[in-house]
Structures are given as structure tokens and as C-alpha cells.
Recover the amino acids of this structure.
């Protein structure tokens, strides 16, 4: 009997305590509701975080504030409602606006970097379609990247048009996805523009401008019998349009090649390798 009574007594004590605790479960204000929900309040001085909130919740904030929102007005709204006891009224909006909880990859990158200007989608000038082509052609050898964007590069050509579009479509979609560290990292890697558009930009970036050929006659003499040079249509075109000497034809070809963009068909796989062999001093590789 004692055991049973003890059990009943324990249940009674537990029950009383349970009712007492239940009565205190109700958060005292909005701030306590958010923190109990496992959410972290935004730091007042975290400007990038407030920019991300503004980017992701513009329409919601317009409805709340009854005006075009900015970071300062958002902060003030949070300061005003966090102490309020009627948390049910503000819980949903506050969980989007006042906490460290980016809803998209785009928002997360804004929170980290202050914007998306480092991505092709964030560029204010330049042709984004062309930028995606260049980014694609320099990453098409990365099988994991191609699998990620669901594109298989063709074996016989570069696949610039379709590959660039596949990359662009993936990047735009990924920016709206729920963020995680891996996806954010992949977006930064795949969706950023290359730091060059053409051959000249690449050799400048690589610090190879000083290697540009100066003795075109010697170089011409060393490659003039190569079938790849004699049968090169781009070389023939220069010959047909001018009365330049042989070395001047090579020089002209090199000068024209420098401006070739990697978004143009054949620049990456054909023109650039030939340029390195014909126009840069000390370049090694297959004779072209």
C-alpha cells in the first residue's frame, strides 16, 4: 500500500508542478517567443543581415510599415514589437524580419557579402548571357559541376549556347532555394563571372603580357610548314585581304586573336591553344 500511496503522491506532486509549468509556458513577449522557438535575434549593427531581410521581405515590410522600407525602419519596427506581450499577433512577421533566418540562397549571400554583385546575376552591366557562356566553358571539364546543372557537354564541340543557358537557369533557380552551406558554396563557385572575357584579358590576368611575341619572323619560319598553320582558315583570310609580309600576317593574326571572346564558338578549344603556341614566347605544347 505504501508503494501505491507513494506513487499517487508522486503523481500528484508531478501533476501540480506540471500545471504550474504549463501556466508559465506562455512567452511573456515577442522576443521570448522567438528565442524559445530556437531563433536568433539579428544584431542591431549587422547591416548586411538587415539588407538581406529587406531583400527577401519587401512586400511584407511594405504592408507592415505602410511605406517603402529601409534598414532603419525595419530595425525600429523590431525594437517596437519585441517587447510586446501580444506575441501571437506579430510572431509570423517577426520570425521573418527580426531574426537571423535567411529564406533563400540569395538572402544568405547578401547577409555574408552585402550583396550579390560578385555573381553574374548581380552585375549591373555586361551581357549576362555571354558571361554565363564564358563561365560554363571554363568549368565544363568539372564533371560534378555539369552533373549539378544537369548538362552533359557534347564531345565534338563546346556546347556554348546550351551549356551557358543550363548554367544560367541553374544559377537563377538556386538563388531562390532554401540555403545551406554546400549550396551557397556551389553558387559562389559556379555563378560568378570569370575575371576575363577574352584572350587578352586572360593573359593579362595571368601576368603573361610581357611574353607576347616580338620576333614574328623567327616564329613564322618555325611554323610556316605546319599543316595546322597552312590550312588555318583564319590565317588564309588575313592573307586574302592584305598584301602584308609573312611575319606581318602572323602578327596580325595574333593581334586579332587577342580580342577573341571566350563566349565565341571555337575561342576556348581552338583559337586560344593556337594563340599560346604562335604568339607567346616560351609556350610549350602541341604545335598548332
Amino acid at each position: 500500500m505504501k508503494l501505491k500511496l507513494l506513487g499517487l503522491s508522486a503523481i500528484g506532486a508531478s501533476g501540480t508542478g506540471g500545471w504550474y509549468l504549463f501556466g508559465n509556458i506562455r512567452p511573456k513577449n515577442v522576443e521570448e517567443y522567438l528565442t524559445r522557438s530556437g531563433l536568433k535575434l539579428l544584431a542591431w549593427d549587422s547591416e548586411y543581415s538587415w539588407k538581406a531581410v529587406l531583400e527577401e521581405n519587401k512586400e511584407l515590410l511594405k504592408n507592415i510599415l505602410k511605406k517603402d522600407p529601409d534598414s532603419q525602419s525595419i530595425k525600429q519596427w523590431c525594437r517596437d514589437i519585441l517587447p510586446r506581450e501580444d506575441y501571437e499577433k506579430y510572431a509570423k512577421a517577426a520570425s521573418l524580419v527580426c531574426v537571423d533566418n535567411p529564406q533563400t540562397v540569395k538572402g544568405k549571400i547578401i547577409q555574408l557579402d552585402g550583396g550579390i554583385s560578385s555573381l553574374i546575376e548581380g552585375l549591373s552591366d555586361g551581357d549576362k548571357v555571354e558571361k554565363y557562356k564564358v563561365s560554363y566553358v571554363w568549368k565544363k571539364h568539372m564533371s560534378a559541376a555539369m552533373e549539378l546543372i544537369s548538362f552533359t557537354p557534347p564531345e565534338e564541340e563546346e556546347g556554348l549556347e546550351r551549356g551557358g543557358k543550363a548554367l544560367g537557369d541553374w544559377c537563377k533557380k538556386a538563388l531562390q532555394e532554401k540555403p545551406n552551406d554546400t549550396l551557397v558554396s556551389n553558387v559562389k563557385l559556379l555563378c560568378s563571372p570569370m575575371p576575363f572575357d577574352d584572350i587578352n584579358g586572360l593573359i593579362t590576368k595571368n601576368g603573361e603580357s610581357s611574353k607576347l611575341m616580338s620576333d614574328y619572323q623567327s616564329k613564322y619560319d618555325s611554323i610556316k610548314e605546319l599543316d595546322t598553320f597552312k590550312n588555318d582558315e583564319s590565317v588564309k583570310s588575313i592573307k586574302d585581304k592584305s598584301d602584308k609580309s609573312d611575319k606581318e600576317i602572323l602578327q596580325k593574326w595574333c593581334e586579332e586573336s587577342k580580342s577573341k571572346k571566350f563566349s565565341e564558338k571555337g575561342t576556348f578549344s581552338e583559337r586560344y591553344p593556337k594563340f599560346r603556341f604562335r604568339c607567346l614566347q616560351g609556350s610549350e605544347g602541341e604545335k598548332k
